[in-house]
TrEMBL record:
Keywords: Kinase, Serine/threonine-protein kinase, Transferase
InterPro entries given in the database record: Kinase-like_dom_sf, Meiotic_Drive_Suppr_Kinase
Lineage: Bacteria, Bacillati, Bacillota, Bacilli, Bacillales
Protein name from the UniProt record: Serine/threonine protein kinase
GO molecular function, one term: protein serine/threonine kinase activity
Amino acid sequence: MEHFIQLARQLNKEIMIESRSPFDPVCPVNTPHPWQMLGCGNYAAVFIHPDYPSYVVKIYGRDEHGLLDEKKVYERLGSHPGYSVCYYTESRFLILKRIEGITLYDCVHKGIQIPEDVIYDVDEALDYARKKGLTPSDVHGKNVMISNNRGIIVDVSDFYKKETCSKWKDLRKAYFKFYKKTLYHLPIRIPYFVLDLVRIGYRYYRKLKLSKNKGK
């Protein structure tokens, strides 16, 4: 682990991560060899080193004060099959257990069936987090993975926030009302641009819903 920490520190020094819009994922400008980027989120990008396939390095590109909050979330969660594990934190980055699998978002893109048990796994993991005094937030198709046929939440960076988030509730509703009756039985690949349009449309739907609730 000590050698990997040194490699992560060097990566942290060399990497440049852009934040083009507060509504879009951060974007690495460069990825030093031999590191590989696994994905980008709203605040951070995740990288893997080929010599250490069991670990990932999550480097914050914005809202870096949230890193300590994320560390505290993992400490409160402890060991649970529905989450990753945080092994180490330092300025701007965390070292986490790598979860190998596929996100729900990519399942829809590739026409891979999402089992119903995965949804229930996430429900149970969220209930567990609430019992630990956390407020699960920002749980959506890109933050949930299927690994060994189990549903795992791979991003808990917003679990410290206090406001209510309906993303998982809305996704769950869409799964049972639409996906389970259609795409579940049809191995159709959905292009990313279509999924991005759905994501943008959902963003405006939430804004409209929020403004209506405030007006009441």
